Amino acid sequence: MIVLATQMWEDYELLDSGGKEKLERFGQYVIVRPDPRAIWKKTLGETEWKKADAVFIQTADSEEWKFRSSPPTPWEIRWESIKFALRTTDFRHVGVFPEQAVNWQWIHQLMSNVQCSMFDEKPCRILNLFAYTGGATMAAAIAGAQVTHVDSSRPAMMWASENAKLSDIPKDHIRWIQDDVLKFVKREIRREVKYDGIIMDPPRFGRGASGEVWKLEDDLPNLLEHTRQILSATPLFWLINAYTADLSSIALGNLLADMVKDLGGTTESGELGIKESSGGRILPAGIFARWKKD
C-alpha cells in the first residue's frame, strides 16, 4: 500500500495533532479542528495549542467556532500559482483539503507538455466530479487543460469560481456545471462527449441538486461504470479520492482496476495523509486510487 503525505508549504502547515484534534496554520492564521483519527498524544504543549486564532468546538448538542482572533472573511492562501479564498464554515471545513496537494502536483505533472490528440493541438479535456472548491480543477487548468467542473452544491460552485478568478485562470479554461453527477455523466454519454482524464472526490453520503440520495458504497460502482463510457480512446489518467472508513483503499483500487483493465497503464491505491512539522507523524486523511497511462 502506498502512503502519499503532503508536506508543509509556505501557506500551510500541520503544526501538531493528537487527542483527536489537529493544529493547523493556513497562511498567518492558526486553527484547531477535531479529527477522530488523531488518537495519539500531542507533541506540542497546551500553551502552543492555546495560541490558535480559532477553535472548532464540537459537542453532543452543538458545533461552533470560538475565536481568539477572527480571521478576515475570506482570507487567502496560495499553493504554487493557485489561490484559495478561505472561510470558517458550519461544517468545520475552511475551503481547502491540504492532503490533496500531492494529487494536484500529480495532475499538473501529467498534464504538462502533453498532447491529447494525434491530429490537432486541442487541449486535453478533463472532467472533475464532486469538484468542491476546485483545487484539482485549477491544477489541471493551469497546465493547459479544458476542465469541466461538476458539483451539485451552488455555494461550492460559487466558491470554486471565486478561487479560479483569484488564480487568474482564463474563463474559457473551465466549464462550470451545477448538477447531480450521475445525471450529468449519463447526459454526456448520450451526447457522445469524451474526456482524457477523470477526477472524482465522492462523499460518503450526499444529496444531488434535485434531492437525489448518494451513498458511496452503494452508488460508486454504478457511477464508475457510466464514467468509463465517456473516457476517450487514449486517456491520460483517472483519479478517485474517498473519505470513509467503510471502504478500504484496496477495494477502491480494485474498483478502478476493473474499469481500466483493457487500457494498460499503471493503477495504484493507498492512503492520503499530512505530515506534521513538529513530531513528523503522518495524520491519515482519506484514501485514493489512481490510474495513468504508461
UniProtKB/TrEMBL annotation:
Checking InterPro entries in the record gives:
Glyco_hydro_b, SAM-dep_methyl-trfase, SAM-dependent_MTases_sf
- GO MF, one example: methyltransferase activity
Residues annotated as domain S-adenosylmethionine-dependent methyltransferase = 68-209
Q: Does the keyword Methyltransferase apply?
A: yes
A Pfam family cross-referenced in the UniProt record is Methyltrans_SAM
Gene Ontology annotations of biological process type: methylation
The alphabetized UniProt keywords are: Methyltransferase, S-adenosyl-L-methionine, Transferase
- Name-wise, this protein is S-adenosylmethionine-dependent methyltransferase domain-containing protein
Gene that this polypeptide is encoded by = ine196
